[in-house]
Structures are given as C-alpha cells and as structure tokens.
C-alpha cells in the first residue's frame, strides 16, 4: 500500500520554525497511524540559505523564493512562522487563494487582520488555524472555538506574556526592582533585545484581542485594547499588595457586558486565593468564565521553541484530518455579532493607590471628600509610614467608573496636602 | 431561506440531562449563526414520563420507547446521559449502526468498552464523542486528541474526582477527619448516597483509563488501573505532610515508560509548589507532560449539571459542523499501539510512612537495616512524638520498586520493636 503523504511548506526557520521542523521529525514515524497520513516538509522559505542550511538535514528543501512554494500545487499546507505583518500577510492571502491551508503563530497579524484572513480562508474553503498565536503551547483557541461553544462566555482573564510574568515573579519572590528583573530576563533570554512589546503590554493585548473575538463572537482588534505596561510597578507596590493578600500580575481582562465589550491589559492586584495568582515564572494561563462551564483555566508554556511548535503541529495534524475527510474550512470565523467596545473611562474598576500626603489633621477627611465627590468609595485606607511631615496612605477603592476615578485623581494631585500620588494600580475581581 | 435544523435525541433526563436541555435552550437563538444549524431536541427517552414532564416545556417530546428514537431517521445525534453499562451500551451500539452520531458522558462505559464503541463508530462513519466523560466541563479529550497530537505525552496526572478533593480540602483546611468531611460532602450534595466509587478511587480510575488510552495511543481499560481510596487518610497524615511542604491529594497518575504503561489512582503527597496542590474544593485539574509542550494544566469544574452539559453541548456542536461538512467520523480511535501495562509491584514510587516503634536504643538502626535489605533508601526520617515507651517515626523513602517496599513492610510489621505502621502513602514527583 502506498504511503499517504501530505506536503507542507514552512515559512521561516527561526526559533519557532526550527521547533516545528524538530517536532515533525519526532512525529514522523507515527504520523500515518495517528492521523492517516505523513506530513512532509517539501520546502522551507528562508532569507539566508547558507545560515539555514546549517540547521537542517536536507538543505535542498530550502528556498528564498516564495513563488516556488505558492506555485507548487502539491503543497497543501503552509506554516507561517516569519512573524510581522508583511510579507506574512501577503503570503498567507496568496496561499489561501491558491487553495492552500494555513497555520500561523503570528499574533500581530491575527490580532489586527484576523477577520480578513478568516474571510479569505472561508471563501477558498481552506483551514486557517492559529492555536500558537495565543499562549504558545497551551490549547486555548480550539477549546474556545469548539469545547466551550455551548457557553455564553462572559470573561477571559489571561497571564499571556511570559516575559512580564517572569519579571513580576522575580520582583515578588526576590524583592527585585523592575530594572534589575528586566536585566535578568534579558540575560536569561526571556526578554528580547527590544522588550517594548512585552513590558508595555502590547504583546498581551494582541492575544487578548484574538481571544475576545472568539469568546464573544464579535471582532476585537489590537487597536481596541487599552494597554498599560509594568514599568512603573515597584517592589514596594508588590510588598503592599502582599499585605492586602494579593500579588501583582500583568492581566489581560476581556468582559462581555450588557453595555459592550471591555478589553484591556494592565498590571493588577490579584487575590492570592485566585488560581491565576500562583501562575509564576514564564508560565502563562488563561482563566475563562461561562454560563455553563463556570470557571475553567488553561495553564502552560506561553512561548519557546517546542511548546509553540506543539500548538502549530497540532493545527497541522488537524488540517491533515480535514484534507483526508475533504472538510477543510469546517471551523470558520465565528464573529457573527457586532458588539460595541466600551471606552476605558466607562469601565468600572477597583483601584489601589499610594499617596504621600502631609501629616496634618483633616488630611484624610479632605482626600476622602474629594473622592466622594467623584463617587469613588473607599473600601480600605491604611496609613503605612509616618515621616516628620508626611504620611504614606494606601487606599483601595470600591468599584468605580474609571472616568470618575481619573477626574478625582486630577483634583487630588493639585491638593496642597498631597505631595505625590506614587502608584495607581487596578485591582482584579470583586470585593470579598 | 429555510432554517437548517439537525435533530437530536436525549437519553436520560437526570441532573446532566436537564443541564443539556437547559444549555441547548440557552444557545438556541445563536446556534445557526454559531455552527450553521439549529439543534432541535426531538425526543427525550425517560423511564418515568410523568416525573419528567414536570421538568420541561414540551412534554410531548418525552418517550419511554427507545425504538421510537432508533427508528426515527430524522434524528442524527443521540446524547446518552443515562449512565451505567446497560442498556446504555446497547442503545449506543444500535444508534451508531443506524448511522447516528453519539455523544456520551458515560465514563463507566467508555473506560471499559471504549475501544468497541469507537470501532463501531468508525465502521459506520459516525462521530462518537465523550468530552464530558472525563473531568466534567474541562476541555481535555479534544486537547489530548487534537491540540497535543504533536507530542509524545509521557505523563498525565489528574485530580479528577470532585467528591474526594472536597473531602481532602476540608480535612486540610479545617482539620476535619475523613468521616466528618464525608458527612459534610453528603449533606452538601457533593457525595452520593453510596459514595464507594468516589472514595475508593474507582471513578477517578475510569477517567484515568480514558485519558491514558488517548494520551499514549494504546488501550487502557478501567480493569488495568490500580486504585486505592482515601478512607485511611487521617488529619494527622495531612498535618505531617504539611510539615514536609506537601498536601495530600487523590491523584490519578498515568505514565508512558520504556517498559510499559503505569496507571494508578491513590492518595499522594504533592509538593505545595506544584500547580495541582492548589486545586481545591470540588475543582478538578489534569496536568499533562509532553516532549514538545512541556507542562500544561487544565482546570475547572469536574462535575455538575451545567459544567457537564457544557462539555456535552460542545461535542454536539462539533458533530453539527461535521454533519454540515459531511465528515462525521473524522476523529477516530487513536489506540494504534499495544503497549504493556506494568504490574503495580514493578512501578517505582516514593513512600511516606508513619511507624510507632519502641523507644529503645538501636530501633532506628534495625528499621533502617530491614529497609536497606529490600533496597529501600531513606530520604528523610523524623521522630515526631516520644511517649513513655514508644516513638512515632515518619519516614520518606527514595524511589523504590513497590514490590520491594511491600516486602520490606511485611518484615517491618513483624518486628518486635514495631508497634504498628499507621500510614503508608505514596509521594508524587522526584526528590527535590
């Protein structure tokens, strides 16, 4: 009996591409029995043929000419792991139009142009899968699109950036300051040379846009996500959070409310009792709430050569099954609603803040009175340090509209008794 | 445009059946846009028509005659939530042979007869899905069968019984003894009137058999799983475990080793640092290790009306997509290997034990010498309590063949200086 072979092409042979190459090799002997056919990497697109040749056993499959792949009708699956918007987007669109199925790990692309790409895939009855674009090796796209479709999902909360979670874990467990923890992350290879996208929350924002779109059946793009990074978090904030029974995590939060979708990424205080609080180091996790499933959480490696390749090869194998059953394109875009995205100032949050204020009678009353005027109720107020002339106050508010809170902050900052507002950090969850 | 309707029948209208009915109602308005068709419950099979009529809005769809469903060619999906082996097995086989796709939550059936049922489904090009049979609402079957297929999975560790996890959590957090915690679980509805299957580990054993089969691509049935319950765990064991930095959990452990599959369910000490240690109350979690994905964990509600229905409806919706794309049967049995199952005595484990021994010189040496004779190395030995004539010793062993350990125990028990061996509990994981 002749062996059934399905040809694939890999675009890119960086860390993730090399991982895909390795995982396909590791699975080669069992593929036919497992999924009904063997996936053969027929071509690998690279920029530098010479550099790439050192990485693989069959340098003859390397090419720097996209047309060689696009025009090869025997190639049914294109695996894009180049990253960036262009030329990835053009290549993927061309591949789909040529009837090739596509797997990508490209969160930038899916978060900004996912709708267009999914429409193109549907028009050409192709699969367009991107499990690896969110939370690396953790199965989350397929669970959201298939396992949990019987739910109205109301909330997705994610620790979906390993770099920042590593930094915050070091700041928490070893009392490091942000700059030192970032330097360590860079040294250990957890942070890129330019860490902006990670530490400013952009990377997490892209993943939240993708998950929110799927979970709420309404398109959310990266441009809709309000992002705030972790650069202003200090080890003092973390110590004070601990006194309140909390840790500080960079959380992506997406909520489907009656008045629209809320979606943001920011550092937040999380109760130590919440399952997300014990997600440490470079691990990622996504916490989901639905009307039927209640709470569920998915935990694992959010990045890395082999974990990301695990997700990509899972997608490739699913496409093989679809090809063998002539049902490519069976899971399509599920954004059949057009829900409004709420403005950040209309979102309700709880806040933690640290204020340096004069240590004179009536100061607390004055601050409380300003907050009250803007409908900010105080849930907790603790005087932390008393110096000669000023005291450090920690205030945790009840749930309040962000707009109101920020209006109150503007007034507080101008008060003569307020020396400075040294931290403002949101608090996740309801009051206990 | 006429609305596309796919007819389904529900077998059973107990807790889970009612949940499925509710979740389908909750999704009715969106189904067509979400999955391309509306699922209509055309018939519900019940024993007591009158009792069931009170539960639903359309009592006319109730029947107590299976033939009415089997012979109705317009019914494409059968959802079995009766539980038990018969008549569930006969009904499912008949449904598959009639070309109907089947969803079941029946772990007893899948754990003992899964191979036969999957073969029957494949022969008839039908889907046979059972996401709800393991860990309730937690997506785990689809992740194992699809998302993680690019891995050689080497280990599955699960807290997959909510009743026992609730009991152990109460014993840990409130120092309750087993009998009191069980009574509380019964009162709160977490334990059934006859709790045997839960507290003896049989229920968890069934789920481990199903997951091991899928993860290791080799059939494991419930009969292959060594099970030990939690009835002998005392609050003292839990306190001593805490002193060692551990909690006690009922763990299902399945390992794919070079010499065969190990699969068992038993109470175990787990390091407080392990993600499974903070899975409390009636929550379930499944921890997976693979060569590509590294560690991953899936957490959520392992039982209950709506969480279980969430998993079932996810399967039903997947079948709808397969029907619309004419590809039912695309995910088949993946047990293409026949790996040996190791005997329990050949498995290597670490052990925690409490021994009451005479408080006389040379006792420790005598005990250590017996253990050494059977190749049991001592990793830790702590003298806990000294009474007038005896002392309580806590011993934690290194990894040892279970057979050797049990041979050593037989000798220890007969030693004059040993008053009793009050606990023997396995320890999860490697020495730190």
Automatic annotation (TrEMBL), chains A, B:
NADP(+) binds at residues 11-18. One of its GO terms (molecular function) is NADP binding. SUPFAM superfamilies: ACT-like, Glyceraldehyde-3-phosphate dehydrogenase-like, C-terminal domain, NAD(P)-binding Rossmann-fold domains. L-homoserine binds at residue 192. InterPro entries: ACT-like_dom_sf, ACT_dom, Asp/hSer_DH_NAD-bd, HDH, HDH_cat, HDH_CS, NAD(P)-bd_dom_sf. Residues 352-426 form the ACT domain. NADPH binds at residue 107. It catalyses: L-homoserine + NADP(+) = L-aspartate 4-semialdehyde + NADPH + H(+). The active site is at 207 (proton donor). Its EC number is 1.1.1.3. Keywords: Amino-acid biosynthesis, Metal-binding, Methionine biosynthesis, NAD, NADP, Oxidoreductase, Sodium, Threonine biosynthesis. GO terms for biological process: methionine biosynthetic process; threonine biosynthetic process. Its cofactor is a metal cation. Pathway: Amino-acid biosynthesis; L-methionine biosynthesis via de novo pathway; L-homoserine from L-aspartate: step 3/3; Amino-acid biosynthesis; L-threonine biosynthesis; L-threonine from L-aspartate: step 3/5. Signal peptide: none annotated. Belongs to the homoserine dehydrogenase family. This is Homoserine dehydrogenase. It comes from Blautia hansenii DSM 20583.
